[in-house]
Write a structure and sequence with these properties.
Oligomer: single chain
Number of domains: 1
CATH topology: Rossmann fold
Shape: globular
Number of strands: 7
Mean pLDDT: 94
Helix content: 25-40%
Number of helices: 6
Strand order of the largest sheet: 2-1-3-4-5
CATH class: Alpha Beta
CATH superfamily: Flavodoxin domain
Strand content: 15-25%
Amino acid sequence: MRNSPSVLMIAGSIRRPSYTRALIRAVGEVLERNGADVCEWDLVKNPLPIADPEYDGIPHEYPDDNVRLFAKMVEQANAFVLGSPVYHNSYTGVLKNALDLVGDPQFENKPVGLVAHKGVQPLDHLRIVMRSLGAPVITAQIATLRDHYTGREGDYQLNDARVLQRVELFAQELLEWVERFAVREIPVPIR
């Protein structure tokens, strides 16, 4: 791509420290090394209110400042990385709520990479949700376990060599899909 792709990362975890956020950070570091502009929406520092159906399809008119900023960031992103721990064999309610605040126009034709901690169920469910929003989900996905991390200074660090190699492939595929799905001006023939 000519310009650096913008990737918005959202970890559906409010736990501190968080394995999911450590995984998101590891992916973000690789994406940045490969030329992407990476931004994370932190659902703890920037909480979002419960989605109000009154504003379905018009998140820019939502009365909450965080929702309007979130919608703007989602709209401006070229791609996304969504992560979640396993909650009752699915992804978290806080991530579902964030997705419910925005819609098709913000996600349509923008590649999404999915990561999870403790199992693959969130990945299966998120894939269906993203398909409903018109967002293509890359084929690579990452699911981690507790022993893939070490604790460090009150936080976690992804340190498993095989998972880190998968993170590299995941980031590469996401950036390739950004290029593939980039909106291009198609010249209209004059008759």
